[in-house]
Amino acid sequence: MQRSTLLTFSWLNILSKERYNALCTHFGSLDKALSELDEAVLKELGCRNDTILRTLNRLEEFDPAAYEKELTKRGLAVLSLEDEQYPRALRHIGDPPVFLMYRGDLSLTEQPCLAIVGTREMSSYGKRVTQTMVPDVVRAGMITVSGLAYGIDREVAEETLHAEGKTIAVLGHGLAMIHPRQHAQLAEDIVEQGGLLLSEYALDEQPNQYTFPARNRIIAGLSLATVVIEAGKQSGSLITADLALEYGRDVFAVPGDIFDPTFEGSHALIAGSRAKLVTSAQDILRELGVVAPETRTKDPDAAFDSMEEELLYHALTTMPQSPDDLSTKIKLDAAIMSATLTVLELKGLVKNVGGGRWVKN
């Protein structure tokens, strides 16, 4: 896909995976589809009249070079499903976003991620649970994922940063702004500490009643599991939990006061056997098979004697991986990989957890 095509369709903000497939099937590529894009094509895609008018107006006014310049000025990058760097965890969900705009370290999406979600109307109990769980999750080498909204989302991000961890904030609007505005500095802190801001929307897209539920599929799709800290009967966190289940991911829920309506949704998940009851981070890590690394005082990079050792060490995580798993990340001869793993084990940097699977120590 040509860069100008990627930027233009990302700006138009009309492509679901289904529409992307339809255009590629009919025209052969998005490049060709863009050259033929008109009212008739948009009607064939199922766009409403107001969407067609808006799309044609945005298409007429769009300047790819100026847009690229604006993205660069803001430190933003954009990619599509056709790019190799597209997060692998998202490729296989039912409706992956065709485009992703981001700021920060995209490689975090290839690390073990845990979605931690909950109500905007956070109780003191929900805050305490988050403050207790998040540091243990960070120490286990996991990346937290949330939506940067009020309440539990903000607490997750702040506690991750306090624990010197990294977090991914998935936003329900374009990255020209941060909503709510009170979280703008927190967003900056996330990026400065090596985290990631992520959105499927065009730079200028405003948040609305549809964008927030839609972004929940990205939160669930990126993550090995979703933890519901505190959710009422109508909480958007339940959407994230349902999507996680649809994607075959684990869902966990923290129990609360049976008389507190802010936990009705959480208790319904547990009662319906859609979520496993957890009371600590250790419950979650145990269910996921995460092996917490030992506390380390020295920089492991100083112990590397070869490029292969460094490459292999940084490909490992706290989630057990086999040599076949590792070979999808790095290209190493099987014999060299086996020998390098042995050397790293002797240095105390990696651990064989059985079944030929390895973790970072």
How is this structure best described in words?
This protein has 17 helices and 11 strands. It is an alpha/beta fold and about 350 residues long. The protein folds into 3 domains: about 1-70, no CATH class; about 105-290, Rossmann fold, CATH 3.40.50.450; about 300-360, Winged helix-like DNA-binding domain superfamily/Winged helix DNA-binding domain (Arc Repressor Mutant, subunit A, Orthogonal Bundle). The strands form 2 sheets. It has a 9-stranded mixed sheet, sandwiched between helices. Strand 7 (about 225-230), helix 12 (about 235-245) and strand 8 (about 250-255) form a beta-alpha-beta unit. Helix 11 (about 210-220) packs across helix 12 (about 235-245) and helix 15 crosses helix 17 (about 335-345). The protein is globular, with a radius of gyration of 22 Å. The relative contact order is 0.10.
Brief descriptors of the model:
361 residues; alpha/beta; Rossmann fold; Arc Repressor Mutant, subunit A; 3 domains; two-stranded antiparallel sheet; 17 helices; 11 strands
